[in-house]
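Example for tutorial group B:
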């Protein structure tokens, strides 16, 4: 665009480019001055509503008149020469100087003298205070968005992308504004935000200026998000001895994860920093954060004469974890972390250190006929002393009452103050027939193994559960998920699976409209049918009902991924990882997100974690093979496919990957052998999704055959890898086909 004139602005040179647009130096021919033009991505004005909102907010931001804020002169739209429609642009003050990050890099350790750091942050806070007074929140304060002029004045850039208070949802389709390292916890969790999000970011900038480091570390986005949500930054004085101790108090107040405890106004930051500069104590109040009590429920031992009763002891353990997880004042260790101690002799003090919990609950279950004996004990991990112990010798029909009693006892032992509504979360609302409940526990035990035979066994037990108790909502929800799983793992044709999943998901919601598992079942169905809007609604409702539902967060990530919104996909999956750190499938699919992003080395690291957790996890080997193929490590990929075959046997997914591998190594005849093998399986009655053929045809360079199969897949859908047609590397050549935009529109993926 160099040399072109846009409106009355002649473009002189390109200044920079980033995720939020391209910036040019330009000449304002009307007023004869040098200005900066920022061209934004087209999605800012993708619809009339988006366009109106963007213009409203940009105009409001342009009203911020302050010496520390880059002045906005004009907001217009320009016809994109590439045919991408109208692109919005902002004409703003041209600021000569360096970014704050580059300014700090001039020092030996990338930090600044503490007095200079304080002066810079005072200016940042002063500019933000003027914006906040007008109801404007910046949302993307970071060292790259702060300029230092030649005379040392701070200029806050990019206010044209700010939002009005009250219209502050973080997520836009296909994009997330903000840089992870500087984002507040509420931004990462996609909550409504206000000026306190900017205040958090100011705290991150101050920490960075004082230490040359960021307060929250992470090798990749998911790890960074986890750090921000869960970890505390190191003390500034531990990284730099000459910094006054008053900075610690201020930093703690700026980086409170609970925004209600955070500094509430930028004027408070200015007052505190001026007092520190004068050698006084920072006049700022830091609210003490009350540490949540924490518990780990370790697997109850099965001491029944029949070892097959292990499903029952595991199920009771899981039910207690689920029940206690709903208590807001209590932090409960995840199932995957707790179950690593199954059948092991433990030292309670060491377990407490390993899991960072205050108490552990352990016990045993002995079942003979219709009687059950449950022994439970609660231990203080600080000293290993027993806090409480009890044995319950009851009829099997009393098992629900025993679970409720144990949960209540834990709450009382930890002296948690609970409202009546919170107390009600401990009690299971629906008391199923105990025989149906037993069938449900058996099904859960089998489903967790995720093989064809185990899922079918799970369906068998769930069907028996609803025969015994026709009002058992969670059994219907799990049946829908089982059929969803069978189709997605290519073990059942989509027509049968979708019919069954739809029937059972609807029944679950009809019986219990506020059951989070029922909403997840419905959401998963909409997801594989590419109805992402309704899928998103049900995932969000499930998470609202139960924020600790790791499966909901994990599956929701793939709606974002299908749309190409990688940052939010990573965010949702990282929340699932935080809830269940040792879940093989959650770790594996973190790797899959990075694979779709083209970050193959990071993808391999994440997938490898899942295999280390469970070496027999076939899905992990399958995903690893795909990544290795794209890394051109073909021998390693073939070996990995054999590992998966050892668990799954002959499988469509593995054949599809092997066909691609052979095609990419130039072994055309070998690839065609795989195609024929897939056709033979289909003729023999094994369902083969058109996607498996499409991958191989695409790898062979047969675009028409590949596209034909993709069009067939678009009629069938019900396969979650197909929903990722916009981002999956295997579809790359198909995305270049001129017919692809029409297909995307048909699928509703052109959002």
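The residue assignment follows.
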């Amino acid at each position: 665009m160099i040399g072109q004139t846009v409106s009355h602005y002649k473009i002189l040179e390109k200044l920079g480019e980033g995720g939020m647009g391209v910036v040019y130096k330009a000449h304002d021919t009307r007023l004869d001055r040098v200005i900066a033009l920022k061209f934004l991505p087209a999605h800012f004005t993708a619809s009339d509503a988006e366009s109106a909102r963007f213009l409203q907010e940009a105009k409001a931001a342009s009203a911020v008149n302050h010496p520390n804020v880059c002045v906005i002169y004009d907001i217009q739209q320009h016809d994109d020469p590439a045919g991408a429609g109208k692109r919005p642009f902002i004409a703003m003050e041209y600021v000569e100087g360096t970014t704050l990050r580059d300014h700090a890099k001039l020092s030996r350790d990338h930090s600044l003298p503490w007095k200079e750091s304080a002066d810079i942050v005072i200016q940042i806070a002063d500019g933000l205070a003027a914006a906040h007074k007008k109801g404007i929140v910046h949302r993307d304060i970071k060292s790259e968005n702060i300029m230092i002029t030649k005379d040392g004045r701070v200029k806050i850039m990019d206010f044209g992308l700010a939002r009005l208070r009250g219209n502050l949802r973080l997520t836009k389709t296909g994009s997330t504004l903000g840089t992870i390292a500087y984002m507040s916890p509420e931004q990462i969790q996609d909550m409504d935000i206000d000026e306190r999000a900017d205040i958090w970011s100011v705290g991150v900038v101050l920490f960075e200026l004082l230490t040359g480091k960021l307060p929250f570390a992470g090798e990749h986005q998911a790890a960074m998000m986890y750090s921000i949500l869960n970890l505390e930054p190191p003390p500034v004085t531990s990284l730099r001895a000459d910094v006054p101790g008053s900075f610690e108090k201020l930093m703690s107040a700026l980086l409170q994860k609970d925004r209600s405890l955070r500094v509430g106004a930028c004027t408070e930051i200015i007052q505190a920093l001026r007092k520190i500069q004068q050698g006084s104590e920072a006049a700022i109040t830091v609210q003490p954060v009350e540490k949540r009590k924490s518990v780990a429920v370790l697997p109850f031992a099965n001491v029944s004469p029949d070892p097959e009763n292990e499903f029952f002891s595991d199920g009771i353990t899981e039910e207690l974890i689920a029940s206690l997880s709903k208590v807001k004042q209590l932090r409960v260790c995840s199932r995957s972390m707790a179950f690593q101690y199954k059948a092991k002799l433990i030292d309670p003090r060491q377990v407490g250190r390993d899991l960072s919990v205050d108490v552990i609950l352990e016990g045993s279950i002995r079942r003979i006929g219709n009687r059950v004996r449950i022994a439970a004990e609660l231990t203080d991990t600080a000293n290993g002393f027993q806090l409480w112990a009890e044995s319950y010798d009851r009829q099997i029909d009393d098992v629900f009452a025993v679970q409720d009693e144990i949960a209540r006892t834990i709450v009382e032992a930890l002296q948690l103050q609970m409202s009546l509504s919170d107390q009600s979360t401990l009690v299971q609302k629906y008391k199923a027939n105990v025989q149906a409940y037993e069938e449900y526990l058996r099904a859960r035990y089998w489903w967790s193994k995720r093989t064809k035979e185990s899922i079918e066994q799970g369906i068998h037990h769930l069907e028996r559960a609803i025969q015994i108790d026709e009002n058992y909502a969670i059994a219907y929800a799990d049946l829908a998920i089982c059929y969803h799983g069978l189709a997605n793992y290519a073990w059942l044709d989509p027509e049968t699976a979708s019919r069954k999943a739809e029937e059972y998901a609807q029944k679950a919601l009809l019986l219990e409209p506020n059951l989070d598992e029922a909403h997840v079942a419905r959401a998963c169905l909409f997801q594989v049918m590419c109805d992402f809007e309704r899928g998103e609604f049900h995932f969000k409702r499930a998470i609202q009902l139960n924020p600790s539902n790791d499966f909901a967060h994990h599956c929701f990530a793939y709606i974002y991924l299908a749309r190409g919104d990688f940052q939010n996909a990573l965010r949702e999956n990282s929340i699932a990882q935080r809830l269940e750190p040792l879940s093989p499938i959650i770790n594996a699919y973190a790797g899959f997100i990075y694979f779709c992003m083209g970050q193959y080395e990071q993808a391999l690291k994440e997938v490898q974690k899942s295999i280390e957790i469970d070496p027999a996890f076939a899905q992990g080997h399958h995903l690893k093979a795909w990544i290795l193929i794209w890394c051109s490590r073909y021998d390693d990929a073939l070996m990995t496919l054999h590992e998966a075959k050892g668990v799954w046997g002959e499988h469509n997914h593995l054949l599809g990957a092997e066909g691609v591998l052979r095609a990419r190594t130039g072994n055309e005849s070998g690839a065609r052998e795989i195609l024929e093998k897939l056709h033979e399986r289909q003729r023999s009655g094994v369902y083969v999704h058109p996607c498996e053929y499409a991958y191989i045809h695409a790898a062979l360079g047969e675009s028409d055959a590949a596209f034909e199969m993709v069009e067939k897949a678009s009629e069938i859908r019900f396969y979650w890898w197909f929903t990722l047609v916009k981002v999956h590397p295997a579809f790359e050549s198909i995305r270049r086909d001129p017919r692809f935009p029409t297909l995307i529109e048909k699928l509703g993926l052109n959002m």
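The CA atoms of residues 241 and 633 lie 48 Å apart. Compare this with the pattern of hydrophobic and polar residues in the output above.
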